[in-house]
Design brief:
Number of strands: 20
Oligomer: single chain
CATH class of the largest domain: Mainly Alpha
Shape: globular
Number of helices: 16
CATH architecture of the largest domain: Alpha Horseshoe
Number of domains: 3
Largest sheet: 4 strands, antiparallel
Strand content: 5-15%
CATH topology of the largest domain: Serine Threonine Protein Phosphatase 5, Tetratricopeptide repeat
Strand order of the largest sheet: 17-18-19-20
Structural class: alpha+beta
Length: 524
């Protein structure tokens, strides 16, 4: 284990290094000097070791909200292994659209994409082996092919790739999964594609690195000049980042950093709130709407650790009742785990009736499946909420997902009832966000935008109908102005072509209009 010392390289801890002349806060060796900077800006981070296997990134100085922590470019980038047929260049789903067949046999969306840069690694290897794509199971060999090709073409990648964990011992213990990888990944690469110089160990390491460190992405946005597509037309991809810095960010279910993905698949990590010098920098590995039950299982299954953060150790999930069920038979008491054990029985705090972990898990799976079936229209979502309001707490993760869907579903509203409903839904979601994800984030910004815009329309209707006075109008407009300003801050760093950039632009336009109305109100 490298010795952690202030005078050593911020990443590899080599003592053959120099103090950065710009920030004078970080030492870097020649190999990792370029990783310390982004866009002529010094990154305020340092890697520290807790033991042989545990590492963390810490702040080398005080960091302000929305300040850039790191920026990284994609290294491994490929479709998810269980994907439907998808273009290997642009990731457009190929169902129900005309396709072309590339020389390697893979279906693609166009001849242009056949010659695209991302697709060249596997295309060249297939052609050199006189092989053709035959089955969708071959999508799972693409990530190792692209990773190993990049490692061959860019030797500098090795110095950071070696830092990435692959959890080899834990994966070897999963005998069935290990054997499946040998059969459906290693064997085709060796026998069908004749790439025997890539050893089983090398391929398995790529699979492990991808499983441990890759991010799932989909429908990020478009680069100027690209075809505009609906989100539903784009397949999911997995990406690993080049410098490996992203992989050193540990999980906290109430993180202090947020990840922002860009249309070119690069990534920026920004601070959500003020971070003190020496404080660990963290992100959330789990989905925003994953309850404690699902999070704990995901961490063990995907990253081989049990999360012991404050949220996961609190059965009420930071007092939000994000996992709380309601007791049946007219009791309506809160049903929560008896203790922090992930397999613990659940108990009603009112009537003390118990349910097993398996009963709760099966119930959540069933309700979530109903939610997926009923999330097509606004009325379906409202019906879902009404059906399950006596079974799940109003802040339960599934109910919050339904509320977010409803917020997005309520569009082009003009009547007071619907506008007020949307405002109330935004308040419900933000109440949970404030406790679980305090600070600035693009997800928070989207909800604040919907809340502020709906409030703006509602306020105008109420004033026109003389429900509120001129004084009340001005006060409400000032509150909306503050909401929009926070929304704009939350969307800091969003780039052209993304939904976040569009929301930020619209928020600025509405804010300008609101400020004009505040000024005008003084003359009425």
């Amino acid at each position: 284990m490298p010795q952690t010392s202030i005078g050593n390289c911020f990443l590899c801890h080599s003592d053959d290094c120099d103090l950065c002349p710009s920030c004078k806060s970080v030492y870097t060796c020649k190999k990792h000097c370029s990783i310390h900077t982004y866009d002529d800006m010094c990154l305020p981070i340092r890697l520290e070791y807790m033991d042989e296997s545990e590492r963390k990134l810490v702040a080398v100085r005080d960091i302000q909200p929305m300040e850039i922590i790191l920026h990284d470019d994609p290294f491994g980038l490929a479709p998810v292994q269980d994907t439907k047929p998808v273009c290997l260049q642009c990731f457009k789903l190929l169902e129900n659209i005309p396709t072309v067949t590339c020389k390697c046999g893979f279906p693609m969306c166009s001849q242009k994409c056949c010659s695209g840069r991302r697709h060249q690694a596997e295309c060249k290897i297939y052609q050199e082996a006189s092989a053709q794509f035959e089955h969708v199971s071959e999508y799972q060999i693409l990530m190792p092919i692209r990773m190993l090709t990049q490692l061959e073409d860019q030797l500098s990648r090795h110095s950071t790739f070696e830092f990435l964990m692959d959890h080899k011992q834990e994966r070897e213990a999963e005998k069935e999964n290990w054997a499946r990888t040998e059969e459906f990944v290693v064997k085709p690469i060796h026998e069908k594609l004749k790439k025997t110089e890539w050893t089983s160990e090398m391929i398995q390491r790529c699979v492990g690195v991808a499983r441990t460190n890759a991010c799932n992405l989909s429908a990020i946005g478009i680069i100027p000049g690209e075809e505009m597509l609906e989100d539903s037309e784009i397949g999911s991809s997995r990406v690993i980042y080049a410098s490996s810095l992203m992989a050193f960010l540990n999980n906290d279910c109430s993180p202090n950093c947020i990840t922002i993905h860009h249309p070119d698949y690069s990534l920026t990590v920004r601070a959500m709130r003020k971070i003190k010098k020496g404080e660990e920098l963290t992100i959330s590995y789990s989905s925003l709407y994953s309850g404690r039950l699902q999070r704990k299982q995901d961490f063990i299954n995907n990253w081989f650790f049990e999360c012991l953060c404050d949220r996961c150790e609190d059965v009420t999930d930071n007092r939000t009742n994000f996992d709380t069920h309601l007791c049946g038979e007219g009791c309506l008491g809160h049903v929560l785990p008896e203790n922090n054990n992930s397999q613990a029985d659940w108990i009603c705090k009112k009537c003390l009736k118990k349910k097993t972990f398996n009963e709760i898990e099966e119930k959540e799976i069933a309700i979530n499946n109903v939610f997926l079936d009923m999330s097509k229209t606004t009325q379906h979502l409202e019906d879902f909420m009404e059906i399950y309001e006596t079974q799940l707490h109003s802040n339960h993760s599934i109910m919050i997902k339904a509320k977010v869907q409803l917020i997005n579903s309520y569009q082009n509203l003009k009547n007071k009832k619907e506008l007020q409903r949307k405002v109330d839904l935004c308040c419900d979601v933000l109440y949970v966000f404030n406790k679980q994800f305090p600070g600035l984030s693009d997800v928070r910004g989207r909800i604040i935008y919907e809340q502020a815009y709906s409030n703006f329309l509602l306020t105008q209707v109420e004033f026109q109908e003389q429900i509120i006075s001129l004084k009340e109008l001005k006060k409400k407009l000032e509150e909306i102005s503050l909401q929009l300003e926070e929304c704009i801050l939350c969307m800091c760093g969003q780039v052209d072509g993304t939904n976040g950039f569009y929301i930020q632009t619209k928020a600025k336009q509405i804010l300008s209009h609101v400020k004009e109305m505040i000024i005008f109100s003084d003359f009425l």
